[in-house]
Design goal:
Layout (H helix, E strand, L loop, with lengths): L2 E7 L9 E8 L7 H31 L21 E2 L1 H8 L9 E3 L5 E4 L11 E2 L10 E4 L1 H9 L11 E4 L1 E3 L25 H5 L2 E4 L2 E4 L13 H31 L9 H12 L2 E7 L5
Parallel strand pairs: 8-12
Antiparallel strand pairs: 1-2, 1-12, 3-9, 4-9, 5-6, 5-7, 10-11
Helix pairs in contact: 1-5
C-alpha cells in the first residue's frame, strides 16, 4: 500500500483547481519480511502491559474533560487549525470496503498547504491571503491556493531525490478546496464513513503522548460536567489501540526506509531539474513509505 504515486491537477484552471492521485504502484512490500513482523509482535507485547498500567489515568483524563460531541463538523472543516488526517494502510483498506477507490480519497502526507482567506471584517492589507500560522478570527475561512501548494512542494528539496520524486512518510485524507475533509457531507455535517473512520478521527479531540492524554481544540470539551462513562471508556480504549497501531506502522515503515530511502540521493541539482520539469506538466511524483511497504 505504501507506494509510488503521482499528483496531477484535474484542470489547468486555477480558480477551480483540485488534486487527485493516480498511477499508484508498489515498489517494495514490508509484509514479505518475516523479521519485521516478528519485531512488531515483540514490541506490541512489551507495550500492552505498559498501556494497561496507564489505563485508569487515561480514562480519568477523558472523563474529567466533560466532552460531548456537538456534531458541529468543525473538526472536519478547516475551522480551528490544521485538520490533516494521517491514515494507516489498514484504515485505507477498511474505507475501500465501502466502495471508495483509494486514489479518490488519499494523498501523500504533506505539510499543510491551505491558506487563510482574509476576513471581510479585517483591516486593509496589500495581501488578500495570509499565512495559516497567523492569528485569525472565528469567521476566517480557508481555501486551496495553487501558489501555496507549489511553494510547499518546492520547500521539500531535502526530501526530493535524484529523479525529482518527493519522498514522504505515510498518507493523509484528501480535502476539498475549502479545506474540509473529503468525506464530510457539507449539508448534514455528517461523516460519510463514520463506522470506518480513521483512529485520529475516532479519538478526537484526544491524543496520547508522553504525558498520557492531551486535548485538541474542540467546542465539545467542557460542554458537559463529565464525559459519558460509556463514551469515555470507548475513547480510552481507542487511544490505547491507536498507540499500538502507530508504533507497529512506525517499525514497518522504518524497514522500507532502509530498503529505499537510504539508497537515494537528495537535494541534488539533477533532482531539482527533474522535479521542475514534471511540475511544468502539472504533475508531481511521490515515493510514499508506510507500514505496508514502499
Amino acid at each position: 500500500m505504501s507506494e509510488s504515486s503521482e499528483y496531477r491537477e484535474s484542470t489547468p484552471d486555477l480558480s477551480s483547481l483540485s488534486l487527485f492521485v493516480s498511477n499508484i504502484s508498489k515498489i517494495n512490500s514490508v509484509q514479505e519480511d518475516a523479521s519485521v513482523s516478528l519485531r512488531v509482535e515483540k514490541e506490541i507485547q512489551k507495550m500492552k502491559p505498559l498501556l494497561s498500567g496507564k489505563q485508569k489515568s487515561m480514562l480519568k483524563t477523558v472523563e474529567s474533560a466533560g466532552f460531548s460531541c456537538l456534531e458541529c463538523g468543525k473538526c472536519c472543516e478547516r475551522a480551528e487549525d490544521d485538520n490533516s488526517v494521517y491514515i494507516l494502510p489498514e484504515e485505507i483498506r477498511k474505507i475501500e470496503t465501502k466502495g471508495f477507490s483509494k486514489e479518490n480519497f488519499i494523498l501523500p502526507l504533506l505539510p499543510d498547504f491551505y491558506e487563510m482567506n482574509e476576513s471581510e471584517n479585517s483591516s486593509d492589507s496589500t495581501d488578500s491571503v495570509q499565512s495559516i500560522d497567523s492569528v485569525y478570527s472565528a469567521d476566517s475561512s480557508f481555501s486551496f491556493q495553487n501558489s501555496a501548494f507549489v511553494a510547499m512542494l518546492q520547500s521539500l528539496s531535502e526530501q526530493t531525490d535524484e529523479y525529482g520524486r518527493i519522498h514522504t512518510f505515510g498518507w493523509m485524507l484528501q480535502r476539498k478546496n475549502d479545506g474540509s475533509c473529503i468525506f464530510l457531507d457539507s449539508g448534514s455535517k455528517k461523516c460519510m464513513i463514520y463506522d470506518v473512520r480513521p483512529a485520529l478521527c475516532r479519538t478526537y479531540p484526544f491524543f496520547a503522548d508522553e504525558n498520557g492524554v492531551s486535548k485538541c481544540v474542540c467546542e465539545g470539551l467542557d460542554s458537559a460536567d463529565k464525559t459519558d462513562a460509556s463514551l469515555a471508556k470507548k475513547l480510552a480504549e481507542a487511544l490505547q489501540n491507536r498507540v499500538i497501531s502507530d508504533q507497529a506502522d512506525y517499525i514497518q515503515t522504518s524497514a522500507g526506509i532502509k530498503k529505499v530511502y537510504e539508497k537515494s540521493v537528495f537535494n541534488s541539482e539533477t533532482g531539482k531539474t527533474a522535479f521542475e520539469e514534471r511540475l511544468k506538466n502539472n504533475a508531481v511524483m511521490f515515493v510514499v513509505y508506510d507500514g505496508a511497504g514502499v
